[in-house]
Design brief:
CATH topology: Rossmann fold
Number of strands: 7
Strand content: 15-25%
Mean pLDDT: 88
Largest sheet: 7 strands, mixed
CATH class: Alpha Beta
CATH architecture: 3-Layer(aba) Sandwich
Radius of gyration: 22 Å
């Protein structure tokens, strides 16, 4: 079992979005997700590790059938107050999703793998329940911001004490180990430690800049190998008659 956010963690996580700089950061991350995932109206999407519902908000006005799942009851309570009946919320773990194969068109994991016990199993489960595309958003191990958060955790109690950080190459290695040599697209945002404004926004939205592998937030999209539910069928056949004649 990975780290499950407690009551104080849930409140602190929700308050994090109150700061203008953090809203700017979250906006960059969510826009990257939508640009890469390109969800189509009327399709279904699962948010694994939906938390307090912040990552659900970008989907609400896009005509999608939305489902969220998180192991923390405190995070889900806040999410339920925020999204009401517009999202089907469940309590559960990324490594053991309570859904059938191919249940959703899209699946996203946004800063979720950092806190699960078994990242590979979580990605395997996402592949199992998804038909079209999977988006994974993680904190970059090699970004200055990622290094700063890890160093801060040495001296100050933080949820990042419980987090594991990833690189693009580590994620690609895990995905290829599960699915084989499938095409994978990646981009990054949040190239600066602390910045906002029109100029920074223009730089951050540049396709060229997003190809830099050292942005603080990595977005990866790939299509899972199609999986089909099957059941064995009995086959009956009539045996040809044989003769018992002896030769010689």
């Amino acid at each position: 079992m990975g780290y499950i956010f407690d009551f104080n963690d849930a409140l602190n996580y929700e308050h994090w979005f109150d700061k203008p700089q953090n809203k700017f950061t979250a906006g960059l991350e969510f826009k990257l997700m939508l640009d890469m995932l390109k969800p189509m109206n009327g399709n279904s999407i699962l948010d694994i590790g939906c938390g307090t519902g912040a990552s659900l908000s970008p989907f609400l006005d896009r005509g999608l059938q939305i489902t969220g799942i998180d192991p923390s009851p405190y995070m889900l309570d806040i999410a339920a107050k925020k999204v009401g009946h517009r999202v089907d919320l469940h309590r559960g773990f990324a490594e053991d999703l309570p859904f059938d194969d191919n249940s959703f068109n899209y699946t996203c994991l946004i800063t979720t793998l950092e806190f699960v016990e078994d990242p590979r199993k979580a990605i395997e489960e996402a592949c199992r329940v998804t038909k079209d595309k999977i988006f994974i958003g993680v904190l970059n191990r090699h970004a200055l911001k990622g290094i700063q958060l890890r160093l801060k955790g040495i001296f100050t109690k933080s949820i990042y004490n419980h987090a594991q950080f990833f690189s693009i190459w580590e994620l690609k290695k895990i995905i290829h180990a599960i699915l084989g040599d499938v095409p994978i697209s990646w981009r990054t945002v949040c190239q600066f430690l602390s910045a906002s404004g029109k100029i920074t926004s223009r730089i951050e939205h540049s396709n060229l800049v997003q190809r830099c592998p050292f942005g603080a937030f990595i977005g990866i999209v790939f299509a899972p190998v199609p999986r089909y539910m099957t059941r064995p069928l009995s086959i009956t056949c009539r045996a040809k008659p044989t003769t018992n004649a002896l030769a010689g």
